[in-house]
Amino acid sequence: MGTSKGIRNSVGIQIICAGLASLSGVIACSANAQEATPAVAASAASAASAATTASAPVAASAPQDAVKGDAVSLKPVVVTGSRIPRSQKEGPTSVTVITSKDLETKGYRNVYDALAQQTQNTGFTQGADYGNTNTPAANAINLRGLGANHTLVLVDGRRVADYPVAYDGSVNFVNMANIPSEMIDRIEILNGAASAVYGSDAIAGVVNIIMKKHIDGVEVNVKGGTTQDGGGTNGRVQITGGKDFGALSTVFGIEVSRTNPIWSAQRDFMSSATLEGETPMSIWSRQNLDTGQYLGGPASCGALSGIHAFGGSVSTVNGKSGAYCGSGKAQPDFWTTQTGNTSENVYGGFEYRLNDKTTLFGTASGAWDQTSNNTRGPRWTSAAASTGYFFNQTTGADEVWSKRFAPEEIGGASVWDKHWNDASGNLALGVRGAIGDSSWNYEAAYSASGYQSRETIPILKSSIDTYYLGPQLGTTAGGVPIYAPNANRFATPLTPSQFGSLFSESASQDNSWTQTFSLSANGNLFKLPAGMVKAAGVLEYGTQGFSNTTDPLIYQGAYYNPNDTGTFSGNRKRYAAAVEFNIPLIYQLDATVAGRYDDYFYGGHSAGKLTYQLGLEYRPINTFLARGNYGTSFRAPDMNYLFQGKQKGYYPSTTDYYLCNQSGQPLNNCEFANVSPGANSVQSGNSNLQPENGTSWGYGFVFSPTADVDFSADYYNIRIDNLVTVINSDNLLRTEAKCREGQLNINSPDCQDALARVVRNPLTAVLNPGAINEILVNPINAAMERTSGFDLTGKWRFRTRGYGNFLWTASFTKVLSHKFQQYANGPVQDLLHSLQDPTNTPEWPDKLTVSVTWSFAKWISTLQVERYGKVPNAEQTGYLTPTALANLSIAHEFSKDTSVTLVVNNLMNTIKHDDSGGWPYYTVGYYMPYGRTFWLEFDHRFN
């Protein structure tokens, strides 16, 4: 496809150009007679801005004629968003570049952190540190708030396997958590749709992670850190290197890292769920369902206090329905707010020049990740797998017994950790070169990628019913199981050895893979009066598949009340052909035209689409570029949406708005709010889903009066029709409550749909009358989703005499609108301004990032501040104020090969509190509760 060829030269060219520009003030960088403007040169140089802040080393090697301002010839390179090599980074659609230097100096923990903090990433995501999520061992980004599955992620311009477990149990995505940062040359983000170039998925944007291709020598990087408030201690060792052996060029990288978890109990503000006056969570209760009274007493709570259960926080909770044992630490003691992780990554690559026109190339990488987290301790409820209650032959009443086990009973909270052992690998092989003596170049390549995730979770054995209730003595006429349990046994705390005999571990395995064959070419077609018409073309064939295999013991009755996550798999193949043209219409005006046809085949279905893209670049003067783009988009439905079997599970937590309203309790203290674990769910796939279609357009400009100053502004507008989505459970419950209470027309399509999906117990039920029994969800083709906004970026480099050099950069994204419509004739919902967001995951309406880098002698320091706009509180009754977070790095070079860097994340120790929705009292998923974090990094280069 030509991508890797351009990558070889890009960074060096950009650094040289930027260095020369920093001396001459205004300099033109070009690849042919049609010179690139200073605006373009300066913006291309921004990819190396951190490296050129202290420009003396670069300037020292600059030719004297270049210093005087003569044009420097730039070899064209391939920039993300086009398959035609070009001399300018800036094209009809803006591209954001994150350099390897940025990863070191701006306080980013890893690749995911760098991408998540970009201003275009306005959407909410459940990441590895989110807590109770389907994918705690993986991280996803959400450009433009359109979802994790609408951003195409590439490595060296090639597709990689999805994470084998669907994000939020629904959509497929690429994991950003296991890419070794030391081997990354740069990351390019195309800030717009590009289906006509890359095919399906490229709707919200494209992220292209470009790995290093040439390294001379060996570099060792050691990094370690911790948090100010405890937990999260981490360390990392990276070794990278490379060497040329005549016609053979090689590179390699090794990374080993470890991060300890952060437990909620280690943060004072969420160490107990009673800090804000919440009622202690029930940890031991007996309830007579015939009278509705709890039968607990001081003796049972006293026994738990005797073993210092939940840190000695157990107390008797008295109420109008009797007494039970409760504790405010039932959740914090078992909840990790940052996962624990150990990872090993290896990478290798080569290029072998057969002759002046032909090069063989290949790359291979492997990653092994071990992740652990904890989101709640073990909990037992009598006869949960059947009726949820039993007939007590001793008392002659229907009863329900419930118990949460304390860390002191099981041998420590970490005994109940969940574990993920993941392995992934990528391989790419190919040949590239020139076609004869023509201007045309070609590339033929094969790439393959695979991912395996093995999940191991602790689970109670089915024998626990017998342990507490004794043998079943039959059933009542109504089918309720009969027991004559020993109440003293239930009131006696367990020892760790006793608990060890009552639980086991359940293992499941998930796999995904993809492979692609591609043939591409690019070159000159013919010359027009304004310049040469250039073209590129590509043919692709690919296959893709996944499988989710659950523990077979689940179906053999080995476990207590297990979740049937289902065993299912699927695969598909695709064909694609694309062409692209760059046409100089007049001397100052260039047009880009691209077209592509994709065809997917799966399960007897076919989904094909022709997409196209148009772009204009206008340079009326040397310092100004105006641009615009329009394109159509296409996305084949996620394989998880298509092939998922009937999957039973439960939500991490749910709020029953109807019962809260009926009881008259305020939401922040309602017994039916934020219930964890939440309601049962039933989700299945839909093989009849239609592909998504959409349009994207935008316009903007780049202005660069000097090589030290540039500014850009771009407007974007993205629309998706036939959107594939699973209806959010929280929105269903909000809608259902309004329908039942008459706030919405009960005969409307939205009400009829919500009432059918939220299945409640009969009002005559013995246990939990009128409560949610299960929520039925499945993927559908919604009518549409659309969003619009603008991006602003700026850079200013200035120098002082005796005080060093400074580089100021700023990025700002403002979302102007974000709308969603479920049915073609239904209401259009405002996802941006409404507190009652139907997704329950509103995006940031604006994000601002400002950084200042100062370099002086052998010192370099960067201060970066990120400001996040207001988002609704957890209760969705008001807005939280905007929040700013700051990162600081200070580096010292002891020699040209040795440096030490101190990094402080969250410099002001800011933690965004939100008490409106109850524990954990912070904005989960938007801001992290870690507080101030320190890292010390040592780097040495062996030449």
UniProtKB/TrEMBL annotation:
Leader sequence segment: 1-33
Cited InterPro entries: Beta-barrel_TonB (IPR000531), Beta-barrel_TonB_sf (IPR036942), Plug_dom (IPR012910), Plug_dom_sf (IPR037066), TonB-dep_rcpt-like (IPR039426)
Predominant cellular place of this UniProt entry's protein: membrane
Domain TonB-dependent receptor plug per the UniProt entry, residue ranges: 88-206
Keyword Signal: yes
Record's bilayer topology term: Multi-pass membrane protein
UniProt keywords, alphabetically: Cell outer membrane, Membrane, Receptor, Signal, TonB box, Transmembrane, Transmembrane beta strand, Transport
Record domain TonB-dependent receptor-like beta-barrel: where: 481-907
UniProt subcellular location: Cell outer membrane
Similarity comment text for this entry: Belongs to the TonB-dependent receptor family.
Matches recorded under PANTHER family: PTHR47234, TONB-DEPENDENT RECEPTOR
Protein name: TonB-dependent receptor
Source species: Paraburkholderia acidicola
